[in-house]
Automatic annotation (TrEMBL):
Bias kind Basic and acidic residues: ranges: 197-206
Residues covered by region (Disordered): 197-232
Coiled coil: 53-80
Protein name: DUF4913 domain-containing protein
Alphabetized UniProt keyword annotations: Coiled coil
Length: 253
């Protein structure tokens, strides 16, 4: 009786295994060859990229240094501008409230701020540095609207001419053109017969209040100082802001 389930000879089975192993080793060798090729290719790319990466790292470091320096410079500039603004605000040279001012339409708060800036500029800059006399700047100038307007635009042009980075010719033009023009405007606004130095709107015919020519000339030659016109300023501000609306969204300028 024939045995159909007989196992194949041992040598035949070993040959099949060896052939299978040989095939797998061949496939593995091909994979290794491909991997080696990729490694060599990527190694070349990496070798090319490394110097570029070093250069990029150096560039990034330089860029960080530049950014840090620019940031520090910007912070220093902000501090300088803040200090400059504080110094200008202290003497009424800051553009606050924004100008030029349209006095007829200013609201209560804006007019109060405008009076404060104008008074500080007249006292700390105009009187302190340009030394007008009481004849050129009568004590009662705050009580004369035209004189206030003349000094307002004189202040504004002074602020513009002495702003940061303003061209130098603006300051020269202010000294040579606008200062004499404003003083002429103040002189036209205030009649020395009615407002001699230290007086306001007197009747020249009133002998009890009349001053002699020599007295008027002597007083007119004295320097104008905030102490002389401060009482008139207080009266002018009080009368002016009392008539203004509490808020006016259209007030600007």
């Amino acid at each position: 009786m024939t045995n159909t389930g007989a196992r194949p000879p041992e040598g035949s089975r070993r040959g099949d295994i060896l052939r299978q192993v040989a095939g797998e080793l061949g496939a593995l060798r091909r994979d290794v060859d491909r991997t080696s090729g990729l490694v060599r290719e990527h190694g070349g790319l990496l070798a090319e990229a490394l110097p570029r990466l070093d250069t990029l790292t150096s560039d990034v470091a330089k860029l960080r240094g530049t950014v840090a320096a620019l940031t520090a410079e910007a912070e220093e500039e902000d501090e300088r501008q803040a200090a400059d603004l504080a110094a200008r605000r202290a003497v009424g040279m800051a553009p606050e409230p924004p100008g030029p001012w349209a006095w007829p339409i200013l609201d209560h708060d804006t007019a109060t701020a405008a009076w404060d800036s104008l008074a500080r500029w007249v006292g700390e800059v105009f009187c302190a540095w340009y030394a007008p006399t009481r004849g050129e700047l009568p004590d009662c100038w705050p009580l004369h609207r035209r004189a206030v307007l003349e000094l307002t635009w004189l202040r504004q042009t002074h602020v513009d001419a002495h702003a940061r980075h303003a061209p130098g010719h603006l300051a020269a033009e202010w000294h040579g053109r606008w200062l004499p023009a404003a003083l002429a405007g103040v002189a036209a606004a205030i009649d020395p017969e009615h407002c001699p130095a230290g007086r306001h709107l007197i009747d020249p015919r009133d002998r009890t209040r009349r001053v002699t020519t020599s007295e008027r000339d002597r007083s007119a030659a004295e320097p104008a100082t905030p102490e002389r016109w401060q009482p008139h300023l207080c009266a002018a501000v009080e009368a002016d802001v009392a008539t203004r609306p509490a808020q006016n969204s259209g007030s600007s300028s």
